[in-house]
Here is the input.
Amino acid sequence: MSNRKRLKTKVETPPIVSKSRPTQRRLVRASLHGHPLRVNAADLPRRRFLHLAASAAAFPAVSRDASAQSYPARPITMIVPFAPGSPIDVLGRILAERMSKRLLQPIVVENVTGAEGTIGTGRVARARPDGYVIDLGGFSAHVLNAALFSLPYDVQNDFVPISPLVTVPYILFARNTMPARDLKELIAWLKANSNKGSAGFNVGSGQILAAFFQKETGTQFTLVPYRGNPIQDVAAGQIDLTFSQPTWLPLLRAGSVKAYAVTSKARLAQAPDVPTFAEIGLPTLSYSPWTGLFAPKATPKDIVGKLNAAAAEALADEGVRSRLVDLGHEIFPRDQQTPETLGALVKDGAEKWWPIIKELGIKAQ
Here is the structure.
């Protein structure tokens, strides 16, 4: 017999006969000295066969555990869904630098902008749940946007919370030529000049605060949507008002704008002369949106735990704390820096603000 014919020979064993099923002959591939042969599956001892099957089934879980133990083995990408230089971008870069020291891998900040943060947030929702893509997400992206847009992801179910980081209030700024000396006078001026005033806003917190302010004070003024921050137009006197973050307090110190009230529960150390809305009798306008870290759903708990520990260590660093406080951020207490706290913040925020947005008829612009 030639070698070619010998290689094509099938090696078979007698079929297994069952009284309840027709005779079957199952062939599986094997190899011998590099040549493909066919052997009967029945040649494998039953115990050995079951052992191999169980090992194959357990392999994915073992692989995941080993991956979590070795994490991180390469650089991590932190998606920031807003432009470079924005307040959340500055926060992300401060944290990424310090967290990298704990994780012994670089954290690369990537700005994925567009559609008020929904594009970058959506990218994280679609990422592999291996801890190498995480989201620096704010209250707007993870709560408010779900009431303003038709999203391709579920803010409450498509993410795993890692840790809340900071809260940051909003300040009601006005052009420096505004005649009102305090908030009460401003409300009186707006009522006396109904629909003659103007307020610039970004979609999200700024828009909702401006609309909610009108409702709570009984005032009416024109709302002007902006893609960027409207504070520069307020400083230039082109619009009257805007709600913006403490990042812009240098304009107040320079005399370019006025500040009437802050949405935090207590006055800011950086602006002790600016009263809170609660002090003036408008506690419903107390509002300090948070920022936190998220991962795609199904990210292993061990990986989430490592990221949480790195974030907590960063927030405990005195240098980091000093920089964040200077930017007007309030850092969450250590006992609240947990995935459970952040998950509850998302849930509670949706329960409170989604009905308000619907009641006010606010739409994305």
User: Anything to note?
Assistant: The chain has a mean pLDDT of 87.
